[in-house]
Design a protein that fits this description.
252 residues, alpha/beta, 6-stranded parallel beta sheet, two-stranded antiparallel ribbon, 8 helices, globular, binds adenosine-5'-diphosphate
């Protein structure tokens, strides 16, 4: 099982969901069997009671954070103090691995790749246990590709794409034990060469792994094509130690 994790920095609503699903589509178009997980770092236990106007995913989620409570009541922790690290973080990793291995395409056996979207913004208090769990998972599983989505604004007075917000959010990510393999830069217009080079150098990724996730207007179905044209699938497949293939997006 290989994992692709999508995190976001700076602010929410940048396009983590669209990035996760577009990467999933691309990998499927490369012939891989793909599943996905959306992690929302909220304390609600029954996802069905959450507003679908705020969280489109609530229709599909069933299990919540009760596993630690159930284990404690069963005495599984032998009366010991239950702590965020290692008990909650271990539970999150076990849960991710269990869900990731479940086939979702009607075929037998586990999928090849699980795309995990971590909701919220890296550095927020509520996502900390999940970030720590994902950092530990990256060592547990080996084949792990992290895509970090962040904002590249243009300061109108200067007319220049600014890379500092992305640099800062990558620094926050690193301080929490996760290093990005790929940067997906959300901007109004295509990412300029100088911004790409600056981000590659300052965030320690190759310039081919700095992707422009610029505005495509209302038709977000263009995002997988945008990513394919920048060879995002090659960048992901290389990190996951998989053979590089050309995606066939015809049926999408
Ligand atoms: P997040 O998961 O980071 O909160 P979403 O993936 O839900 O963000 O995207 C937020 C909104 O932005 C959605 O309405 C989505 O359709 C839109 N969006 C995301 N990426 C793009 C893009 N490249 N061009 C245009 N709209 C986009």
């Amino acid at each position: 099982m290989k994992y692709v994790v999508v995190t976001g920095g700076g602010m929410s609503g940048l396009g983590k969901g669209v990035t996760s699903s577009s990467v999933g589509v691309l990998l499927q178009a490369c012939g891989l069997r793909v599943t996905c997980i959306k992690i929302d770092p909220y304390l609600n236990i029954d996802a069905g009671t959450m507003s679908p106007f705020e969280h489109g995913e609530v229709f599909v989620l069933q299990d919540g954070g009760e596993t630690v409570m159930e284990k404690e009541r069963r005495g599984a922790y032998l009366g010991k103090t239950v702590q965020v690290v290692p008990h909650v973080t271990d539970e999150i990793q076990d849960w991710i691995q269990r869900v990731a291995h479940a086939p979702v395409d009607g075929k037998e056996g586990p999928p090849d790749v699980c795309v995990i979207e971590l909701g919220g913004t890296v550095g927020d208090i509520e996502s900390c246990p999940f970030v720590e769990a994902l950092a530990e998972l990256s060592y547990r599983v080996g084949d792990f590709c992290l895509i970090h989505v962040s904002h590249v604004p243009v300061l109108s007075a200067v007319g220049e794409q600014k890379t500092k917000p992305t640099q800062h959010s990558v620094r926050t990510l690193r301080s929490l034990g996760l290093a990005p393999n790929i940067l997906a830069c959300r901007s109004n217009s295509p990412l300029e060469g100088y911004a790409r080079e600056k981000l590659a150098r300052s965030c320690h990724v190759s310039s081919g792994s700095v992707l422009s996730l610029h505005d495509v207007g209302k038709n977000v179905w263009r995002v997988p094509i945008l990513l394919r044209d920048q060879k995002a699938h090659e960048a992901v497949l290389r990190v996951l130690n998989l053979d590089v293939k050309e995606p066939d997006l015809k049926e999408w």
